[in-house]
Amino acid sequence: MINVLFVCHGNICRSPMAEFIFKDYVKKENLQDKIYVESAATSREEIGARVHRETKRQLQIHGIYDFEQKRARQIDRYDYDKFDYIIVMDSLNMRNIKYIIPNDMGSKIYKLLDFTPRGGDIADPWYTGDFDTTYNEINEGCKYLLAHIRKKYDL
Prior knowledge:
- The structure is a single chain.
- By secondary structure, this protein is an alpha/beta fold.
- The protein has helices spanning 14-28, 53-61, 79-82, 91-100, 125-128, 131-153, and strands spanning 2-8, 35-41, 85-88, 109-111.
- The N and C termini lie close together (11 Å).
């Protein structure tokens, strides 16, 4: 089983969006028995909160509805041993995750857009209000991440 954890600041916007977009791709490719997906936050600010309403709306627009049970949680140091990929959304998430997981000896921590040809950060829609762009960037990153995993593990 290949275990993927998406991480953002609060685990209510970008990382759950990535979690459920990626799960949708995994399901469509019939890889549920090979790839496991979760999401978490670097902060404790939103622990227990539901997915942000605009994130829900974006997912629903694209036919994804299985997010209602999701509650925000914080990543912990034990997640490093559980997950093969820890995928953050931006440079600030990358910096903050180092307080929780100070050493990436297994080279498991990446930014999502690093799997795309353009790289870069996914802006936090909590601040920008632009959930459309966030969805499009995460969707693109998820496609490339899945292609990477399929190639690496011959799936």
